[in-house]
Specification:
The complex is a heterodimer.
Chain A lengths: L1 E4 L4 E6 L8 H4 L4 H4 L1 H6 L4 H7 L9 E6 L6 E4 L11 H5 L4 H5 L9
Parallel strand pairs in A: 1-4, 2-3
Chain B lengths: L27 H14 L6 H9 L3 H6 L2 H15 L5 H4 L17 H10 L18 E4 L23 E11 L2 H4 L8 E9 H4 L9 E7 L3 E3 L1
Classes of the chains: A alpha/beta, B alpha+beta.
Amino acid sequence: MVVVENTPDTHNIVVCTLCSCYPWPLLGIPPGWYKSDAYRARVVREPRKVLSDFGVTLDEDTSVRVWDSTAEVRYLVLPMRPAGTEGMSEEALMDLVSRDSMVGTAIATVPV
Amino acid sequence: MSRVHDMGGRFGDGAVVPEPEDEIFHADWHARALALTLASGSLGKWNIDVSRHMRECLSPQDYTAFSYYEKWMGGLANLLVSTGVMTRDELAGKTTAQISELAEKKLTADQVAGAMARGGPADRESKIAPVFEIGDTVMTRRIAENVLVSGGHTRLPNYAAGAQGRILRYHGTHVLPDSNAHGLGEAPEPLYAVIFPAAELWQHPEHPRDEVVLDLWQSYLEPA
């Protein structure tokens, strides 16, 4: 298992274009969209357009690194810590991390 | 040219439809299809690469029309018959299945959690030494095909064939799917994460600094 960290410079997204490889032991059974033709075909070529299907918009300065899981190595995204969470406990921070944010199709945010 | 499953970069697909995180199966039989596939794997008659190849060998018409778990069931039916676990008539319900000699390998409910947690590690010792170092520039095979078997299984997607990238990580030595999917042995060899600028793969990348990383076996690569 390789964990890849999101930073202000780089946003990471995981896919398996050839089938549906996914970090099962940690994230469970992959969602339907992860296994869909649309996600597998599009996210390597137009990740921002796919992110917009999830309602996510990246900063213009942020580049995207897409990880195509072609072997038995599994990838997990470490979401970027949202601004203003410096005082939050580990447990409270856990609530901000969704499954999708660990695949890279969501970002961890503080609920308003 | 590759098979229908190799769709990375393809044009024409519609929107990706997000789902709530508690929505896992869309029909009761999907869970049974998943369970049946995993349980059948425990019979030890095939490996993960054989089962992937079997799904990829569905006809393009079927692969495109089938839902995800229909593909799994189609691949599994072909596997069960081709490995002699069941006959076509047994599958079709035309004959009464006899007690199989494989019955003792049956995956029982109490074994499921352990089997799932073990997964299927693919790292193996190998006599093949890594020839690339992190940072080396490499070129992928020009043709994304299995070089051992015509039309065989490979894990080099078509979109990354003949592309120049850079070694990003070394994963150690892993089972080579191109060999293992065809009864030719595990043939472990060095595996690397190779990073490509999006502009090396696509005519119109979304952003000048975008990149794509793939895990690629040493025999897929040449020094550039």
